[in-house]
């Protein structure tokens, strides 16, 4: 443990543990097999762990700033637990990170982390599950068929299949022919850990059926255009991020044995573009990568996939009040405006709609949808499905999702 502890940017949730309220800290990369619980009475310590104070200074600052008296042994215990949970920026974390990155890059494939949890790990059972969603769509009221041979891309959710199954089935079924004919799939997925504007990998994404090949020649072209650090600096995020994985499962299922190479791209947050006047079009890394990907999309039979959800609202996401019937209706209206801009291919209008209210609804699909539209250029979309999915047991929080095909 360093002499002056520094807290990393980690997951933090207020929880009740054994009748005591506190903050649960967890490494978002899941390099540690444990979390650490910090009682609320000691929580001011977290803000003070900025790498500038040793333990004596931490105790003194806690007493002066928060009126919290803590003994040396208790402080040592808390810091030791934080160290073991890898939430401190120190040598222990750096060694764990380097080891995990080495293991990820040298593995035969990127393992499907949600297999057996978010969906069946058995290939036959998984196929039956996805078919059941599609059968249910066939039995229901379907939208008029689109000219599938003209489909160039789609928006697919990345919510779990249990809640989003029908919307997944509607959009992937509509794009079935284009998927089977595709030589290349460029998949943009939300990087929930945030960080880099985009992150590539050479690793192959596996499903319970097998691993699909990555178009490493295209990955290398992007890396040469933007620099290796920009392209791979956060590569370990691919290890645990689920957004691309869920799209790959459906892609693999719809390929029906046909071969297709992937370019998996994780997209970090656009907070600076929401809060300020700058545009992603001014980001040299993004523009450099998009130029290469546009050329690749023109050179192959390509389908461009944005794996992103829409709004995240209610107490589960930090809002003060639950979402009632009236607010759900307002949310749907706002989502319809957003989906209309996505369907029109208006990438700037899409971004401006979200910017206009400061991303109040937390549209986590913003980066991948923006990137997909930027690659596709002039395009026209059709909504294939929409749903507001409960996000807590009280049905006061919701995640809205949609399916859209682009022609």
General description of the model:
The protein is of the alpha+beta class. The protein has two domains: 11-102, no CATH class; 110-406, Protocatechuate 4,5-dioxygenase, Chain B, CATH 3.40.830.10. The chain has 16 helices and 13 strands. It has helices at residues 44-48, 55-66, 72-84, 91-106, 123-139, 161-174, 176-181, 216-226, 228-232, 237-240, 243-255, 271-275, 284-299, 325-343, 347-356, 366-376; strands at residues 11-17, 20-26, 36-39, 153-156, 184-190, 198-199, 205-206, 211-212, 261-267, 302-307, 312-313, 381-390, 398-406. The strands form three sheets. Strands 4, 5, 6, 9, 10, 11, 12 and 13 form an eight-stranded mixed β-sheet that branches. The chain has a three-stranded antiparallel β-sheet with strand order 1-2-3. Strands 7-8 form a two-stranded antiparallel ribbon. A hairpin with a 2-residue loop joins strand 1 and strand 2 (20-26). Helix 5 crosses helix 6 (161-174) and helix 13 (284-299) packs across helix 16. The longest helix has 19 residues, at 325-343.
């Amino acid at each position: 443990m360093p002499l002056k502890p520094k807290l990393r940017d980690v997951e933090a949730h207020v929880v009740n543990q054994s009748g005591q309220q506190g903050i649960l800290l967890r490494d978002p990369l899941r390099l540690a097999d444990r979390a650490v619980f910090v009682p609320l009475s000691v929580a001011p310590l977290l803000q003070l762990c900025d790498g500038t104070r040793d333990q004596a200074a931490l105790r003194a600052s806690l007493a002066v700033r928060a009126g919290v008296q803590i003994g040396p042994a208790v402080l040592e215990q808390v810091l030791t637990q934080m160290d073991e949970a890898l939430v401190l920026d120190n040598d222990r974390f750096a060694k764990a990170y380097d080891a995990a990155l080495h293991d990820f890059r040298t593995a035969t494939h990127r393992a499907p982390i949600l297999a057996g949890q978010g969906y069946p790990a058995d290939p036959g059972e998984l196929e039956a599950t996805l078919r059941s969603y599609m059968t249910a769509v066939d039995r229901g009221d379907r939208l008029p068929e689109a000219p599938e041979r003209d489909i160039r891309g789609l928006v697919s959710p990345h919510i779990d299949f249990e809640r989003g199954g029908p919307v997944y089935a509607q959009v992937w079924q509509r794009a079935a022919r284009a998927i089977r004919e595709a030589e290349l799939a460029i998949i943009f997925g939300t990087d929930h850990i945030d960080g880099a504007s985009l992150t590539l990998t050479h690793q192959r994404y596996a499903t319970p059926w097998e691993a699909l090949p990555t178009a490493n020649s295209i990955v290398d072209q992007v890396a040469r255009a933007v620099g290796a650090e920009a392209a791979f600096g956060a590569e370990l995020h691919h290890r645990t991020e689920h957004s691309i994985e869920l799209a790959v499962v459906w892609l693999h299922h719809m390929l029906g044995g046909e071969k297709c190479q992937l370019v998996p791209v994780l997209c970090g947050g656009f907070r600076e573009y929401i809060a300020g006047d700058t545009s992603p079009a001014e980001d040299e890394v993004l523009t450099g990568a998009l130029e290469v990907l546009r050329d690749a999309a023109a050179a192959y039979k390509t389908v461009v996939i944005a794996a992103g959800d829409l709004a995240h609202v209610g107490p589960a996401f930090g809002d003060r009040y639950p979402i009632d019937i009236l607010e759900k209706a307002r949310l749907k209206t706002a989502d319809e405006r957003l989906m209309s801009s996505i369907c029109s291919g208006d990438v700037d209008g899409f971004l401006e709609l979200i910017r206009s209210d400061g991303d109040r609804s937390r549209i986590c699909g913003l980066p991948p949808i923006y990137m997909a539209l930027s690659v596709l250029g002039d395009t026209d979309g059709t909504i294939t499905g929409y749903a507001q999915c409960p996000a807590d047991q009280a049905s006061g929080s919701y995640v809205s999702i949609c399916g859209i095909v682009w022609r």
